[in-house]
Amino acid sequence: MGTFIKGILGGFSGRIGNVVGAFHRGIDYMRSLPRKSNKPATLAQLTQRLIFQIVVGFFRPINGLIKIGYQSYKGKQSPINAAVAYHIDKAVTGVYPNLSIDFPKVKFSKGHLLRPSIVGVESVATAKVKFEWLNNAPTIGASTAATDLATLLVYNPTKELFLSVEDIAARSVLSFTLPVPADWIGDNVHCWMSFVSVNRKEVSDSAYLGVTEVL
User: I want to staple 73 with a disulfide (CB 3.0 to 4.6 A). Which of 8, 45, 82, 130 is the partner?
Assistant: First the structure.
């Protein structure tokens, strides 16, 4: 894709011949339409297409979390594009066509605050998951603070559903027990958490807490 230089009529959007014009993040672009090919896709191409589909499909339900978690990515790369690119490279496992998300490598947030110092995650009572962490905020001289707020994320691969809560507890609180749907009882769920500053302008890397069976 090349940058489109405006003429006397300005930039354009849409298709003219075999050229498509577009405007994104304050910049006009133009690109040629792809040429059709009768050649069958190679294994590498098929693998890359499937990886892309898996990653995009996995993150689509939590785009809102991604927009906050990857907000530090500026310029031409949007938060969702940054997250997709990272996970295509780092967080898919298996051999084509048996590919899947590598859950411990998932990061729904990447930033400069100190990441959670994890104690653990466990199922408690009925349909409740308890998250525990340490208060690792320095007392002075850092953007990380005891008032940073936790975002919790749970994924149920059996149901293919996410459950998330934002700004639910301060870093200094040390734990939170999250109710989950009753029909998740007996399912294994994967859990992550991150922190965001009170003004929501700074985030931490998310941390994978592990997997637990809902009681």
Answer: 82
Output the CA angle 22-23-24, nearest 5 degrees: 120
- Take residue 213 and report the two structure tokens written for it: 């069976």
3-class DSSP state of 104: helix
Q: Say what the alpha-carbon torsion angle 11, 13, 15, 21 is, to the nearest 10 degrees.
A: 60
Question: Nearest-CA neighbor of 152 among 195, 181, 188?
Answer: 195
Contact yes or no for 131/178 (Cβ under 8 A): yes
Neighbours of 76 (CB within 10 A): 11
From 6-15, 60-69, 152-161, the region with the lowest mean pLDDT: 6-15
Q: What is the pTM of this model?
A: 0.82
Q: With 0-12 CB in 10 A as exposed, 13-18 as middle and 19+ as buried, what is 4?
A: buried
Q: Which residue has the tokens 């990061």?
A: 107
Residues composing the chain: 215
Q: Which two tokens stand for residue 186?
A: 């007996």
Query: pLDDT tens for residues 21-47?
Result: 665 555 555 566 666 667 899 999 999
- Answer yes or no: are the C-beta atoms of 209 and 178 closer than 8 Å: no
Tokens of 44: 């590498």
Residue with token string 């975002």: 151
The residue ranges of DSSP E strands in the chain, in sequence order, are: 2-3, 14-16, 19-24, 27-32, 92-95, 98-101, 117-124, 128-134, 149-156, 161-165, 175-179, 188-196, 207-213
> At 92, phi and psi to the nearest 5?
-120, 135
